[in-house]
């Protein structure tokens, strides 16, 4: 049965964090927690009576620092990270096709979606796709650093994500317009960058974006490769 | 079974809007939609394949204008408003204890909770309380206009809301700290204004707040009494 996650927002970096829990269950997972909201996120778990068992990262973020390491230390949750993202301290190094049980009967399916970064992954749970920076509502993540590749992103989205059931809800890693959720069916038909576009056109479009380097990149990426803990890995 | 709603946010007034839909259902309800997000909210309904049947207002808002009238005109949804809020054009004038069916088998229970305004109401659906400005996460709404009353708010919260099941999720009308959701159990034990406080203490605390008059009040309240449409009721 399709269940909505709990969606939390960081206004500074426009990042979404998600808490996943089944009705009546105590064990929960969190995806892409943000360091400055460590206390807020713990408070949500406490208020909801949830025990954190797994922390998932969709990739090594360049625009904010994760709280995965602090959450692990505080709750005993396992840190789960894409194997290709250089997040060495995560005890679960995820591979494409993995299925991770995080509570009684709950399972999260791992989909390797290179493109935004070489190691980026998306997660599927109960009809919900947590699409990180791979697929955004009406758009997609940039592809110009950390092994990013517009061709790879195109292949990941059109070959892996757009083949999911049309009703699959898409919960992105960011939104900059006050939007919360989309669906695979809508993105496949209407995504401004990817719907109905040829691969070569998409690569040209991404190459022409000429985006500034993220201000936090030199701090955030090394920090996130250490789960947000002190940078001396 | 407890299901999370879809939560949308207006950063300008820190207002939450909620879309309520059961898994697999087409018909949906919306609570407290914000005028400037009319297009955004329609886009969410379209993406999710939902048909709007009911628009609920928790009260006549003083800090933002509703899109209830425009949503009704665009979708054919019924406008549902607390009977004591002077929202005359709403075809369903809600009374305490009403139960409104809004989709196959879905029902929303109406709880009159005077205090923030005299007519304010909260709504209960599948273990979720939509608490408007009556109960906020760790706090409560102000009680100094539109028939507001600190004593009434105390009685509404302690007598009606805090008697709900502890696991009931509390989805507030606003949050100013990046928080999304709480529970009745947590608020009953920890709410900074209401937990363990005597009625007279609470009334004194609210009287001492000395809050400025909302800047939008003279525009928003008359507009909202007309479902956000042109003010000539």
UniProtKB/TrEMBL annotation, chains A, B:
Pfam families xrefs: Lactamase_B
GO biological process, one term: hydrogen sulfide metabolic process
Highest rank taxon of the organism: Bacteria
Name under which the protein is recorded: Glyoxylase-like metal-dependent hydrolase (Beta-lactamase superfamily II)
Gene3D superfamilies, alphabetized: Ribonuclease Z/Hydroxyacylglutathione hydrolase-like
Species in which this protein is naturally found: Massilia aurea
Molecular-function GO terms, alphabetical: hydrolase activity; metal ion binding; sulfur dioxygenase activity
PANTHER family: PERSULFIDE DIOXYGENASE ETHE1, PERSULFIDE DIOXYGENASE ETHE1, MITOCHONDRIAL
Keywords: Hydrolase, Metal-binding
Metallo-beta-lactamase domain location: 14-174
């Amino acid at each position: 049965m399709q269940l909505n996650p709990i969606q939390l927002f960081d206004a500074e970096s426009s990042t979404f964090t998600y808490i996943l829990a089944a009705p009546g269950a105590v064990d929960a997972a969190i995806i892409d927690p943000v360091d400055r909201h460590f206390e807020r996120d713990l408070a949500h778990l406490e208020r909801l009576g949830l025990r954190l068992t797994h922390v998932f990262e969709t990739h090594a973020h360049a625009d904010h620092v994760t709280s995965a390491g602090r959450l692990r230390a505080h709750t005993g949750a396992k840190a789960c990270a894409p194997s290709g993202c250089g997040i060495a301290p995560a005890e679960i190094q995820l591979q494409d096709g993995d299925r991770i049980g995080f509570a009684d009967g709950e399972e999260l399916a791992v989909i390797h979606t290179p493109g935004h970064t070489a190691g980026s992954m998306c997660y599927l749970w109960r009809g919900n796709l947590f699409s990180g920076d791979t697929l955004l509502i009406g758009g997609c993540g940039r592809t110009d650093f950390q092994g990013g590749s517009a061709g790879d992103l195109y292949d990941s989205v059109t070959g892996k994500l757009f083949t999911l059931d049309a009703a699959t809800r898409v919960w992105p890693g960011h939104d900059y317009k006050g939007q919360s959720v989309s669906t695979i069916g809508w993105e496949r038909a209407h995504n401004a960058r990817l719907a109905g576009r040829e691969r070569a056109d998409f690569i040209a479009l991404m190459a022409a974006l000429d985006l500034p380097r993220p201000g936090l990149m030199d701090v955030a990426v090394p920090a996130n490769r250490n789960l947000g803990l002190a940078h001396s890995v």
